[in-house]
Specification:
single chain, 1281 residues, mainly alpha, three-stranded antiparallel sheet, flat
Length: 1281
């Protein structure tokens, strides 16, 4: 564009203006005939033509009926301002703009004043620009005046307010600006008055330090720029049309050429060129005055507005804006630290790449910023990552050569992302890259079958799935490709053909690994079509299907049944011995519509399926295959369908055969005097596996398997040589027997004898499992423990809930021995180091996957036991052994232990607190037994106990009232434990567990103030007179614990610190109170020193024992300069006489003599008890000094931060000085300037409204003053094109 002269932001509004606007409408002028009306000398000077009246009137024209003095008129009655009309949104924007144009033609100053007030009010300002201000004041003065009239009660403004009305207001606001420019595009915008005034105002407001002004004006300026781009585009089209008409007329023969028309066309083209030059000047003014500064604004929303609009400009008027000079701003801003700004960059680029013609012109930009776009696919903001993938998809469509193989691979793996929008976008990218290129050789292929195009694409999908090496995630791959490639994934006919048909001559057959992957993908596609929801981990739950989706679901299910009812028996027959394939194939029948077997006359295929299932279970002993067979039978044996009888007969025959075989083998296996061989053991184990798998889904109660399994388990205990797998499956089968029996007994129609039998069997089985807890085999112990936890939870007191009181005889409560054995199992098998568990059960070293699997198993064991604690099956105090491991095994079990603590606290707060303190006591005793009775508090073990106590303290939360009793009980138990055992070194030594008070002090902050006094009194019950006098290191835990209980209980003591630290706490000296006023004064300050000393000394003399002493008030140091306090101040100096505190009050000589006698008396009266008091006083003084130093350091640090955060503000708003946000932006010349240099902390004197100041300074925190906080480091090296 043509560079234009900058418009001055200090636009001087003329006091008198003249207008020669045409009375014709300014709404339509397609030929541009009125384009130059009003562009005479008078118009350029902003003067009214001679003979025009002053403001409010016009010759030859009646004032418009809709606007008078800036207010909307309806039937002569004043109603609302322009802002209120737009805010209500009830009137059409077109009519509102038309009314304003009429008012502008009548009196442009009045109409323009109303437009200015419109922008001011849209910013949330309660003030209004008056006519006098409009005529006599400059922009900076008007903006300062409006800043002072902001509402102090709230920091919100229309663009940030919530609610439907304000959301609609933003749209109406933008529409108003667009319609205003469109309606004025033929005349008014060229009068060098209206647009110059508006642009000047918006430029000034956009430089304001007030966010509301800056945000609103930037949005208005950007929308104004977009509207001008549309005008420029129309002018460009008209110029092209005029040029073509001129060329056509000129090329005619001389006889037919119309010279008058040529002159008109030349004149028209000249006027259009002048108009375009003016539009370009306006756009340059907005771009340089607003965009260049605001795209780097400290507020992310303002930056997002700029990037969004520049994307529109490049899309609408690509000839002018789609070049590197403008694209660089989008490229730089892709490194923005705020996700919403990065998102606008990507959406802006998508609009460009969507048009392939524009995409070709972006080659240089793409080569420069391609790596950044690829890296944004892993953005921490999911929305940004999704749009980055979509942008890469558009780039891929525009050119295949732009993205390298490495770029594509970085997107491919995202199809397995847990975030579904990212996975779906990556699936679309994958589909476009691998499946959308159809060559000429593939056009004549059949639609379905092995030789079809889909057959090739399905093979490609299988190859990709295998190369990704994530074979357990086939469901995620299918879900990612479902939206863009569902037709391909639903081509089950081609998949079946690839599996069953023989390859054609010259065709490469699928390998066994590829066939396994294809079977898995086929199963996942069937599941996705029938369930219509993403796999586990993607999505928040099942959504409600639309009518169209339900119809598609039913149609797909019908197709699946008709197709696989015929093909599934054939597939099972072919892959009968393959575990993985058979397991997946046997899951397909549960998605069948079983009615089709009858309606479609497919009974023979059902019989074939049942035969194949029988053969599969007969050939396999793998648990997964057997469970798949059991689940398939369970689904097919549905009484609602007519095929039930046919399937039930087959199932009964199968189970009869299995049970008879098991009983026969068991008799031979358990014969006395004979040693069972391996073949017999294998036969028993395989049959037992099948029975257990079927018993999981089917009720086998009529076969009475409890006796056989119990006998098998009992024999294993007696002989001790039973194979572990037989024992494990016998336990599992017996567990299923108990549960099926319980389901039968829970029915109201059951007999009493059944309940007695169940009670007897359940207790006998629990006793059997308890005995197996002592087995030497780890797998057997884990199975026994898991089953015991399940049974204890099922048959706990909660079995009677929901009106099942008749089951009370079945309640089973574990005795102390069983609870102890369960706890010992957890401690021995769960809380072990990884190094201790470095070998698997088969003796092979563990790899990383097996370690994770072993950890998962241990977590399940711990969770099973913690459920017993939560549901009050075992005593809560048994959880102490679990809780004490919280820190040591935090990475492995921290979440489980923390959740257990939370649940137990909800059940009983006091008992939970007692359990927590018990766990700390256990650790303390373990430390004593390991390191001896002389506790070194620097030991890592002791520090670990303190850290654990701190973590426990944090779990109590901030509401002290809710946990009041629990915390008090915790301190009570802790104090009793600390003084429970006397010292083995004899009297005079600290109790054995006294160091535990140091651990207990971690919970003192959770005590309420009145409770601290109560706990302190309870502590003194255990203390003797001699204990209070001891000051050796071994007594420090007692001293520190007492101090923690006394902290915060004395207001006077705290006032010393607050009085010292409060000075200088105010940031702005103009607003801060005097230093003296910020101190907390004691009542009757003049006499406070002497009276306090007297009270304290009297208290000291009257006390019987120092045990009950409170902290000294230290009132003699309240008025002293803290810098002059000396560590060598003596006891008498700390409690000096009143004369020392008030040197301006001379004492009578007789009074001085009496005072000297009293002082001498006091020194003589200092005994051992007084020395103890002096030591306590010195300690309190030291603590006060330390607190003062910490406060001073914190204040100095805060002051330093504030100095870096606040810029010198003198005269900031005068003469439109560049605002603070201008200095916080990224330099476009590859350099950053340190804007913190020369900042003066004490010169901030901008007197903005209080709420606005707080809001603005919160937004412009120190981080925002560093341009690198807005842009990532990678953008700092980006050069301009």
């Amino acid at each position: 564009m043509i560079a234009a002269q900058d418009l001055h932001t200090e636009f001087q509004f003329p006091q008198e203006a003249e207008s020669q606007l045409s009375s014709d409408t300014d709404l339509e002028d397609p030929d541009g005939k009125n384009a130059k009306i009003g562009k005479g000398v008078a118009s350029r000077r902003g003067k009214k033509a001679p003979g025009d009246k002053t403001k409010g009137g016009a010759t030859g024209r009646t004032p418009g009926p809709s606007w008078v003095n800036g207010h909307h008129q309806e039937n002569g009655t004043e109603s609302m301002t322009l802002f209120e009309v737009v805010k209500m949104g009830k009137s059409a924007t077109q009519s509102v703009v038309d009314d304003w144009i009429e008012a502008y033609k009548n009196d442009r100053d009045v109409a323009l004043l109303d437009l200015i007030n419109f922008f001011i009010q849209c910013s949330g300002c309660k003030g209004a620009v008056s006519g006098e201000m409009f005529r006599n004041m400059q922009n900076s003065e008007i903006i300062r005046k409006m800043t002072e009239e902001f509402d102090e009660d709230s920091g919100d403004y229309p663009l940030t307010l919530s609610g439907p009305q304000w959301k609609k207001f933003r749209t109406s606001f933008c529409d108003f600006i667009a319609v205003l420019v469109r309606q004025c595009q033929y005349s008014i915008i060229y009068d060098e008055y209206m647009m110059d005034t508006v642009i000047s105002l918006l430029t000034g407001l956009s430089d304001s330090q007030v966010r509301a002004f800056r945000h609103t004006s930037t949005l208005a300026a950007m929308k104004l720029m977009t509207a001008l781009v549309n005008v420029a585009l129309n002018l460009s089209i008209n110029m092209d049309n005029t040029q073509r008409q001129y060329e056509a007329e000129r090329n005619k023969v001389v006889a037919k050429r119309a010279n008058d028309r040529l002159e008109l066309l030349l004149q028209k083209r000249k006027e259009l060129q002048e108009n375009q030059d003016e539009i370009e000047n306006m756009m340059n003014a907005i771009f340089k005055g607003v965009f260049v500064h605001r795209y780097r604004d400290a507020i992310a929303e303002i930056r997002a507005i700029c990037i969004e609009e520049i994307g529109m400009w490049m899309k609408l008027y690509s000839d002018a804006f789609l070049n590197d000079s403008y694209l660089k701003y989008v490229g730089w801003t892709m490194h923005d630290k705020q996700g919403e700004v990065r998102l606008k960059c990507l959406t802006a680029l998508q609009g460009l790449f969507y048009n392939r013609e524009l995409g070709i012109r972006l080659e240089l930009f793409t080569s420069r910023f391609k790596d950044r776009i690829v890296s944004m696919t892993l953005d921490k903001e999911y929305d940004v990552a999704v749009q980055a993938i979509k942008l890469l998809t558009l780039i891929l469509q525009s050119s295949d050569e732009v993205l390298t193989a490495e770029d594509c691979e970085s997107v491919y793996h995202l199809v397995y992302s847990a975030h579904r929008p990212i996975a779906v976008s990556a699936g679309e990218f994958l589909f476009k890259k691998l499946f959308s290129h159809q060559g000429p050789a593939e056009e004549g292929l059949p639609r379905r079958g092995r030789q079809s195009l889909n057959g090739s694409l399905i093979k490609t999908t299988v190859f990709f799935f295998l190369e990704s090496e994530l074979h357990e995630h086939g469901a995620y791959l299918v879900d990612s490709l479902w939206e863009c490639g569902s037709e391909l994934l639903k081509d089950w006919e081609t998949m079946i053909s690839l599996l069953l048909d023989e390859p054609m001559q010259g065709e490469e057959a699928l390998t066994d690994r590829q066939e396994t992957a294809l079977v898995e993908i086929m199963l996942c596609a069937v599941r996705q079509a029938c369930e219509c929801h993403p796999p586990v981990g993607r999505g928040s739950g099942k959504r409600v299907l639309t009518a169209k989706e339900k119809k598609t679901q039913l149609d797909d299910r019908t197709r699946i049944t008709e197709m696989f009812a015929v093909a599934l028996p054939l597939l099972l027959a072919k892959y009968c011995v393959d575990i993985d394939k058979v397991t997946n194939l046997l899951q397909i029948p549960k998605y069948f519509d079983l009615d089709i077997y009858t309606t479609g006359r497919l009974e023979k295929h059902l019989d074939a399926l049942l035969r194949q299932i029988w053969e599969v279970q007969d050939k396999h002993t793998d648990t997964e295959v057997l469970e798949a067979c059991s689940t398939t039978y369970h689904y097919l044996c549905n009484e609602e369908f007519t095929i039930y009888n046919r399937v039930d007969i087959t199932r009964s025959q199968l189970l009869d055969e299995l049970v008879d075989k098991f009983n026969r083998l068991l008799e031979d296996f358990l014969q006395e005097g004979e040693e069972p061989d391996e073949d017999d053991a294998y036969q028993v184990l395989s049959t037992l596996k099948k029975i257990s798998a079927f018993h999981n889904a089917h009720d086998l109660s009529k076969w009475d398997l409890f006796t056989s399994n119990y006998r098998l388990l009992n024999t294993g205990l007696q002989n001790g040589d039973m194979p572990e797998q037989i024992v494990i499956h016998a336990m599992q089968c017996t567990h299923y027997i108990i549960l099926w029996h319980l389901a039968k007994v829970s029915d109201s129609s059951s007999l009493k004898g059944d309940m007695a039998t169940l009670r007897k069997q359940m207790r006998a089985f629990c006793l059997m499992c308890q005995r197996y807890l002592n087995s030497i085999n780890t797998a057997v112990k884990e199975q026994a423990f898991t089953i015991l936890c399940d049974l204890l939870l099922i048959f706990s007191h909660q079995i009677m809930a929901s009106g099942r009181e008749q089951l009370e005889p079945l309640v089973y409560t574990p005795d102390a021995s069983l609870q102890a054995e369960l706890l010992n199992f957890i401690l021995d098998q769960v809380f072990i180091d990884q190094d201790d568990d470095n070998n698997s059960t088969d003796g092979q070293p563990d790899d990383e996957a097996s370690k994770i699997e072993a950890l998962h198993k241990r977590r399940n064991l711990l969770a099973a036991y913690c459920k017993l604690i939560i549901y009050n099956v075992v005593e809560m105090n048994t959880g102490a052994d679990i809780f004490k491991q919280y820190m040591r095994y935090y990475n492995d079990y921290g979440d489980i232990i923390k959740e257990t603590m939370s649940k137990t606290r909800q059940i009983d707060k006091i008992q939970c607190a007692k359990t927590l303190i018990l766990s700390l006591q256990m650790l303390f005793n373990e430390m004593l037994s390991e390191h001896g009775i002389n506790v070194d508090r620097s030991l890592s073990a002791f520090c670990g106990i303190k850290e654990l106590a701190r973590r426990f303290s944090l779990t109590f939360g901030l509401d002290q009232l809710k946990t009041r009793e629990a915390i008090a009980m915790l301190h009570k138990d802790g104090i009793e434990f600390a003084f429970k055992d006397p010292s083995p070194q004899g009297e005079g030594s600290p109790p054995l567990n006294l160091a535990f008070l140091d651990v207990l002090s971690e919970f003192s902050s959770k005590l309420m103030r009145q409770d601290k006094k109560t706990v302190h009194l309870y502590l003194e019950r255990f203390m003797t007179f001699q204990m209070a006098l001891q000051r050796e290191d071994c007594w420090l835990p007692l001293i520190s614990y007492r101090n923690s209980l006394q902290a915060g209980t004395d207001d006077d003591t705290m006032s010393v610190v607050s009085g010292i630290s409060s000075r200088g706490s105010s940031v702005r000296s103009k607003k801060s109170k005097p230093a003296a006023a910020s101190k907390r004064k004691l009542p009757e300050e003049e006499n406070s020193c002497s009276s306090s000393d007297a009270v304290w000394m009297n208290r000291e003399q009257n006390m019987q024992t120092p045990v009950m002493m409170h902290s000294p008030h230290l009132t003699s140091t309240v008025l002293r300069d803290p810098k002059k306090m000396r560590s060598e101040d003596s006891y008498t100096a700390a409690y000096s006489i009143a004369a020392e505190q008030h040197p301006h009050q001379p004492l009578h000589p007789q009074q001085q003599q009496q005072q000297q006698q009293q002082t001498h008396h006091q020194h003589q009266a200092v005994d051992y008890n007084t020395q103890v008091t002096w030591m306590l006083t010195q300690r309190q003084q030291a603590e006060a000094r330390q607190q003062q130093e910490r406060v001073s350091m914190h204040y100095a640090k805060m002051r330093n931060h504030m100095q870096q955060a606040i810029r010198r503000g003198t005269g900031l708003m005068e003469d439109d000085e560049e605002p603070i946000v201008e200095d916080v932006m990224m330099s476009s010349e590859d350099r950053l300037e340190d804007i913190n240099e020369g900042m003066d902390f004490d010169t901030m004197d901008i007197d903005l409204p209080a709420s606005k100041n707080r809001r603005e300074r919160t937004e412009l925190k120190p981080d925002y003053f560093d341009p690198s906080s807005i842009m990532d480091d990678s953008v700092l090296n980006v050069s301009m094109f």
